[in-house]
Amino acid sequence: MDTFPDEFRSQLLNLMAWRRDVRRFRTDPVDEAVLMRCLDTFRLAPSVGLSEPWRIIRVQSETARAAALENYKAANAQALAGYDGEQAASYSQLKLSGMAEAPEHLAIFCDDSTEQGHGLGAGTMPEMRRYSVVGAVTLMWLAARSEGLGMGWVSILDPVQLCHDLNVPKGWSLVAYMCVGWPEDQSDTPELERVGWEHRHDMIIETR
């Protein structure tokens, strides 16, 4: 198929607009079949050299979740200490993680030591493996949104500590810690924009 119908393109753009970083979840469980459909999109994702370097851990045990949550709290306190005045006050009011409520936690790693793909495309730019993982996460995010699910990317974490707590193999690096569940509410505007933390700006395209 060379092109898709106008209606399809419009719906695709609409899906992208409603893909939000969710931090406010209901605690209702996610049906296993729905979650698996979302995770199956990793099979469709492109990867440098067809290396498929993503490694996914479902963080389910109370011990592992508690360690991840404590990790976040410590990192968040350190981040808050980096602000002062009104910005510190604003930061302290932000809800930056849905870890306590989200029914599903996914820790997604890049296996930088993988032999799959035979190093094609990663010789001069090894970070392409991690970019491949990010692309795969994005596909899952869109699939989750189409199912009515929300996903939240927790980046306020100590990745070294998390790798230790989850006892991951040497050579794995954390790319994304994702909370997955049913959002409390829905909006096509990022929460940080709604609360005035930052605003979108015009895209800059330069010509050389």
Describe this entry's structure for a reader:
Helix content is 38%, strand content 13%. With 208 residues, the protein is α+β, with helices and mostly antiparallel strands. It has one domain: NADH Oxidase, CATH 3.40.109.10. It has a four-stranded antiparallel beta sheet with strand order 1-2-4-3, with helices on both faces. Helix 2 packs antiparallel against helix 5 (128-146). The chain is globular, with a radius of gyration of 18 Å.
Observed structural traits:
208 residues, 4-stranded antiparallel sheet, 13% strand, NADH Oxidase, alpha+beta
Q: DSSP helix count?
A: 7
CATH topology: NADH Oxidase
The SSE order reads: HHEHHEHEHEH
Number of individual domains = 1
How would you characterize the largest beta sheet?
4 strands, antiparallel
N/C terminus separation: 33 Å
Structural class: alpha+beta
What is the CATH class?
Answer: Alpha Beta
